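Hi U.,

Before I forget, here's the chain from the pilot set. I'm dumping it here mostly so it's searchable later in email.
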Amino acid sequence: MPTPLPGPVTAGWPAVSELELLDTGQIRAGLSDAGRDRLARLEIHDQIDSTNTHLMREASAGAPSGAVCLAERQTAGRGRRGRAWISPFGVNLYLSILWRYPLAPAALGGASLAVGAALAEILRTAGVSDLALKWPNDILWQGRKLAGLLLEVAGESQGPSHLVVGVGLNLRMDPTQGNDIDQPWTTLDQALNGKPLSRNRLAARILDDLMAALEQYGSEGLAPFLDRWRQFDTLQGKPVRLLMGERIIEGRHAGIGPDGSLQLDTPDGRRSFQTGEVSLRGS
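Structure:
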């Protein structure tokens, strides 16, 4: 569970000027003792192609579990299904975490839901209301995209495997910087009505809680995260459309299964869809 913030909603989140560059010392200082133990390596780049791509390369070269990469700007940021992730300098958070498991890659299919639930809880603790999780990996505020996740897995068929979790969180991006985004989007600044948060403190909190979630997923699987995810599932019981390439499947959102699959009630009965195969849109 996320570490509770003391006092009022924004207590412990220091105010900052509009541009606050990422700093390894400040991020390390903001971690809990357990977070510092889990963190194996922390890199911050002024510019990089993609934090996920970088850590996947580093994983192949033997980088340890708990390696973390952040960047001020990405030149080839990636979202799900090959979409570009717009990544201007210094105004958002772009970070990736490498985590190693003895498990087979197939066992990590529910990790995106575990991470999504943990990230939504962090944002709620920071004072954001009206949050929603859209299966499998989007965080919305008032129906607009606030954050996205990109999870990439590699390994032996029976294990071990490694997972790179990428987080893109819009903080203070100017509307002109998001002209190329092809869906409604928002920023944390809007969700908090302009109340400032420290980028470094927020990055530390995200790393703390996501590393804890990744560790817990390895020992307990998806089960402890299901109810945590469901509390942000605002599409439960509503009519939706699933986009599968050129196919559109319509039905009623019936929640998520024990394995993290999307459950959809269709004219042909209840059907399950696995993470990574479909996109979900409210009808």
